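Help needed: design a sequence for this.
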């Protein structure tokens, strides 16, 4: 029998930051050379790193100790901090709240009316990243700014924060080592303060300096700051540009055409799909919209038939021409569009073959419909890199070209094929030949991971609370239970509308299931672990997806988690339904607190990390997906979204924790829930981490979560002899 100290040490050896090093060749990120569809990539060996050059047409694969050995001369990318480089070599930078044109050594001022809190190309303070970016010392290029293909024109915007109130955070032990606490300040409009002022938008001719104002008071450019170049399409002569206009929680969407000389706008295509329209079910992915100005057409995502399809529309008349995709599928990402061949390549999920609906499959279809082909038929997840919003690449890309899984011609693609229990096989495939495998690139070596004690999860399918709908998730059992006849359960939750949570590929295979990396440590401590996607989460048919939209009379999908874990215990009698805990971070922290409060007879312990508990404290509009775009902020339905109203229901052991400089889920949310619990006389634990923001959870915080569940579910004391590695 392992001691609890031994379990903690084993858990630390399987901590999230150590798992990647226990696998070799988990990913192949192709670097396309520009010579046809040739590419190279790095691979790992027992002795170090190798380089591999692949000729897809010939189907050959050569290895070498350096790029030069393989005949590849990789040009270095020159990145000028703070400059947004255009396609013609000229760039833009921000100075004194205005935009300046950078042309070699020459700089010319373009705008002259910028001012504090109303600056051109400025990052909105309501970005959840102001403080981390300050810490990183980033010299950000102009954001919300996009060049035309020739580089002659740009569309740009400036957020108006002049009348917004300032929010403050106090960092009691600043990194400088000074005794005086540091105060962090940023502008934000909270949800109970009304709609913020609209941004201003212009199209500027960089050759002449002339500009046209674009009316954006209705939120037209609300996504421009994040999506950037992925949001904008220019006509061939650059006299017009097109972008999607949609407000979260609303039923209406439009493709808006803007005259780049006059700034005049018109709705070219309009969709109205009550009660809720979504340009993509996954909120952190790009809108499923493509505009084809040369042919006068636009592709838009729609769930009008109950699934998630792409439809072709006429830009002149606005009429729908045809459906491009087919069957019981939900399109997730567009990977390649060939306007000459009129073909589109995309990732989608389906359960029409009885498989896992969350597995990503690659399809290709003609724009005129009726020609959809499945290119990855194997019953597994097929992980291909989808384009990221421009903002993330500008900030974190370091000037490197974005990773693309599909070759420049669109013919070849790199497919990471795996399941939650089967390690990846990485294949090069030919899209023009129905996805034929050209060659195997790598087979991920997970031997060290398994040797370290990693327990491979099991996928499961159970019924939802309605007794009809299928739910999917994963269960991971401990190798060495504390009591082999009675195993406590920890559910890691993120029951949000934003993204899926449960993994359906091998560990490390999807950014959507990032918290899977926390499960091995819980297993090492003797807990069974569960991750699940209930109704109201993306990736499924419209009825499943929109189950939580304006359904205030229900548990809004959380009841599915109780039903699913109960069903699992019926299949696995060793699972102890008397000892169930739940943990979540961010929106998952909101869910974890809500679940122990809503279901006090089921969840015995919970950890709410960086949760949001009072809707009034959120930036304006963040709850619109649940409520609709014109929700009454004073209604019981709105206030009922919060957790503070449920404080009197607490019966189990709750740990509330948050970083003191978390600007995403600000610490006042945690204080609000703590205050509500104190007022009704409930016992709980409350921890604020010095110097911590929203995006990093260190070993010490993880240890405290372990401690909480060991006390509550194992009824044991944590080992005082364990000290986590601060690295």
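Sure. Designed sequence:
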């Amino acid at each position: 029998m392992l001691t609890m100290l031994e379990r903690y040490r084993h858990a630390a050896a399987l901590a999230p930051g150590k798992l990647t090093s226990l696998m070799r060749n988990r990913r192949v990120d192709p670097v396309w050379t520009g010579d046809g569809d040739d590419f190279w990539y790095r691979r790992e060996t027992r002795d170090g790193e190798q380089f591999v050059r692949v000729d897809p047409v010939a189907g050959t694969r050569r290895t070498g100790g350096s790029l030069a050995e393989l005949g590849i001369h990789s040009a270095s990318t020159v990145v000028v901090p703070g400059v947004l480089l255009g396609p013609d070599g000229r760039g833009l930078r921000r100075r004194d709240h205005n935009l300046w044109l950078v042309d070699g050594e020459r700089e010319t001022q373009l705008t002259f009316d910028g001012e504090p809190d109303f600056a051109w190309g400025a990052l909105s303070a309501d970005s959840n990243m102001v403080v981390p970016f300050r810490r990183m010392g980033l010299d950000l290029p102009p954001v919300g700014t996009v060049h035309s293909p020739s580089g002659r024109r740009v569309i740009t915007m400036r957020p108006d924060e002049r009348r917004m109130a300032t929010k403050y955070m106090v960092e009691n032990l600043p990194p400088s080592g000074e005794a005086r606490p540091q105060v962090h300040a940023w502008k934000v409009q909270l949800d109970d303060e009304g709609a913020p002022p609209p941004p201003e938008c212009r199209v500027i001719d960089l050759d002449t300096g002339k500009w046209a104002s674009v009316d954006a008071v209705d939120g037209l450019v609300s996504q421009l700051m994040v999506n950037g170049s992925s949001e904008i399409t220019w006509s061939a002569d650059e006299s017009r540009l097109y972008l999607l206009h949609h407000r979260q929680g609303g039923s209406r969407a439009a493709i808006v055409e803007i005259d780049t000389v006059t700034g005049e706008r018109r709705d070219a295509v309009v969709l109205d799909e009550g009660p809720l329209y979504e340009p993509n079910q996954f909120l952190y992915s790009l809108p499923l919209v493509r505009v084809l100005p040369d042919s006068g057409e636009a592709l838009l995502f729609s769930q009008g038939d109950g699934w998630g399809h792409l439809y072709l529309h006429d830009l002149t008349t606005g009429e729908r021409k045809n459906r491009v995709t087919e069957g019981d599928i939900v399109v997730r990402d567009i990977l390649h569009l060939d306007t000459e061949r009129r073909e589109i390549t995309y990732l989608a999920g389906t359960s029409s073959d009885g498989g896992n609906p969350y597995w990503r499959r690659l399809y290709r279809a003609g724009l005129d419909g009726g020609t959809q082909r499945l290119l990855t038929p194997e019953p597994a997840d097929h992980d291909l890199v989808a384009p990221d919003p421009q903002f993330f690449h500008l900030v974190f890309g370091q000037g490197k070209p974005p990773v693309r899984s599909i070759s420049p011609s669109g013919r070849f693609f790199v497919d990471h094929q795996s399941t939650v229990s089967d390690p990846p096989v990485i294949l090069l495939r030919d899209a023009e030949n129905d996805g034929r495998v050209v060659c195997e690139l790598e087979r991920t070596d997970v031997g060290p991971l398994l040797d370290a004690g990693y327990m491979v999860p099991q996928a499961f399918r159970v019924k939802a609370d309605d007794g009809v709908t299928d739910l999917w998730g994963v269960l991971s059992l401990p190798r060495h239970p504390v009591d082999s006849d009675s195993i406590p359960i920890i559910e890691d939750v993120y029951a949000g509308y934003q993204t899926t949570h449960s993994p359906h590929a091998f560990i490390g295979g999807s950014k959507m299931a990032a918290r899977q990396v926390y499960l091995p440590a819980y297993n090492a401590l003797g807990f069974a672990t569960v991750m699940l996607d209930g109704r109201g989460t993306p990736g499924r048919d419209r009825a499943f997806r929109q189950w939580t939209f304006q359904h205030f009379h229900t548990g809004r999908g959380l009841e599915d988690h109780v039903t699913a874990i109960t069903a699992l215990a019926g299949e696995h009698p060793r699972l102890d339904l008397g000892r169930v805990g739940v943990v979540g971070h961010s929106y998952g922290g909101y869910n974890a607190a809500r679940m122990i409060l809503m279901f006090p007879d089921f969840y015995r312990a919970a950890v709410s990390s960086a949760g949001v508990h009072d809707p009034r404290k959120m930036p304006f509009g963040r709850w619109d997906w649940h409520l609709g775009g014109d929700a009454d902020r004073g209604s019981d339905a709105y206030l009922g979204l919060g957790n503070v109203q449920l404080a009197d229901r607490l019966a189990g052991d709750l740990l509330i924790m948050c970083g003191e400089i978390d600007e995403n889920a600000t610490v006042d949310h945690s204080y609000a829930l703590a205050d509500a619990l104190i007022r009704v006389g409930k016992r709980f634990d409350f921890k604020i981490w010095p110097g911590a923001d929203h995006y990093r959870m260190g070993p010490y915080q993880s240890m405290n979560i372990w401690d909480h569940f060991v006390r509550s579910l194992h009824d044991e004391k944590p080992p005082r002899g364990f000290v986590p590695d601060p690295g």
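The mean pLDDT is 94.
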